[in-house]
Specification:
The chain is α+β, with helices and mostly antiparallel strands. It folds into two domains: 271 residues, Chloramphenicol acetyltransferase-like domain (Chloramphenicol Acetyltransferase, 2-Layer Sandwich); 245 residues, Chloramphenicol Acetyltransferase. Helix content is 40%, strand content 15%. It has 19 helices and 19 strands. The strands form five sheets. Strands 12-8-7-9-10-11-2-17 form an eight-stranded mixed beta sheet, sandwiched between helices. It has a four-stranded mixed beta sheet with strand order 13-19-18-16, sandwiched between helices. It has a three-stranded mixed beta sheet with strand order 1-6-5.
Length: 577
Amino acid sequence: MLRYSVLSSTRAIAARRIIRAYTTAPSTFSNQDKLPRLPIPSLEATASRYLKSLQPLLTGAEYARAEKAQRLQSADQAAAHSWLEDIWLNKAYLEWREPSYINVNWFACIADNPDFPVAATAPSPGQASAVQIGRAARLIAHVLEFNDTLNKGQLEPETARGTPLCMNQYKSQFGTTRIARANCDEIVSQYPATSRHILLMYRDQAASVPVYNAHGERASLAQITAQLALAVQRIDKLLENGPLPRTIQLALETADSALFGVALDVDVEAALLESAEGCAATFCHSQAGRNRWYDKAFQIIVLSNGRAGVNGEHAPVDALTTGRIAMEAAIKERGPLKDTKPAKGLDEPAPLLWHVPGSVLTAIDKVRGDASRLAGNLRIRLGNADQFGAQWIKQLGVSPDAFFQTASLRAFLHGRTETIRSCTPEAIAFARAFDDSDVTLSRKLALFQQAVGAHIEYTRAAAVGKGIDRHLLGLRVQIRDEAEASRATLFQDPSYVQSMSFAMSTSNVSPGELFRGGFAPVIADGYGINYALDKSDLKFTVSDWQSSQATDAEQLRQTIYRTLDDLHAAAEAAKSK
């Protein structure tokens, strides 16, 4: 479940005054009343699309059996905003008992900033560097600026081709944390986000770093830089002298209420610092999950050589929402800064101190070992296809949308995402023909156009709430007892289980010039692929589990390169005829 924290009466009144004071421009949430509720597709439409999506996966006999398995219990769940909202949040994220720090969280690399040149040689391990603190402070300043704009309701409402998009996810960006519970975790958030501090992670220690004073005035860049430096000094001293006892509850509340997290990594191996894939892995899982607070909605990570990235908790918001915050900060950190005046009476940073029972320390040691094995099993490869950008795709006579594989439902109130089942019969026909020397070039390109057409048709259906997977999930959740489950034979059918095993989970976060992301596979024998499409190139990230005998991220990367090259050559050859 998602719960918004209750502000004190004084702070709540102040927050409402802030919002009311800015009413001249369109409010961030001014389009919310215009958004329709997410529709529930008809059973017939979902059944038809579902059966078509099975054709590439099943033999003739298996497909005939699946056609008979269409006994669903239709029900609707009363909800304030969307029938899908709590179902998706709980079933996809909060009830899942696997470790979330790799299985749920995603990561992204922020492009290097010429104003903070990457250190030519690796800084001394265990020590924060000037370029690290300087760049972290600059990114923090711009993210805080975004938070202020959001709190005032001045963030421009987003649209897609003139259609208003739901802005509700932005309410779960700042001051948002996942709270562990026994059977179903909880998301606690605040809007307006009026916490005055951020959470700093440094040398595996946490510290509260105030960035607003008691009157809500934001710290200047110089103050943020000084606050980070002072927090680093205090943690260094703390580790020299040993921690003092303090209640766990107070430290947790401080961490949970922080606006967002910032991690300064100072113990990353030099070889990883110098490698783009090494940095990506560090942004994903650090060293077995160390020096992170993965339950925060997002964390800014800055390495000792000045490279920066983001780690996001996927449960409360989708990556595109956090991505907008990060990309705006990445754009604004280049060039002059319109700074604020220094905030008077800014509190000093304070390390969070813990008194942990021995039994908990034993459990932590075990979990650290599990985390190390999980991180060591994840393989990440980065790819850049320089000639295959949006401009060239358009020259093929197709829209770049034909290459996207996640549908947004933000055109509906509190909408999130829908799966695009890209493995269509048309896509299989094209793939099989493409490497067949007996198939003519013109026929191959015709099959390509048919595959694109099928993909776009499904994409458009999914974007208007007529996809398969969220509807079936909603119906499956409505089953109340074994008797109903026995009648809903679709969910027991092997073809359903097979079609829900996504060997290739893909997502798009574009553009990728300043921000490229990645995530882990969703099944043991699968791939996680994130891609970013720019005008002149395509960037992608491939991940797999090294323990799998069925996958190889490096081999898939090379296959993607070869496929793009072959498609490019075929299209260019067709032009010359």
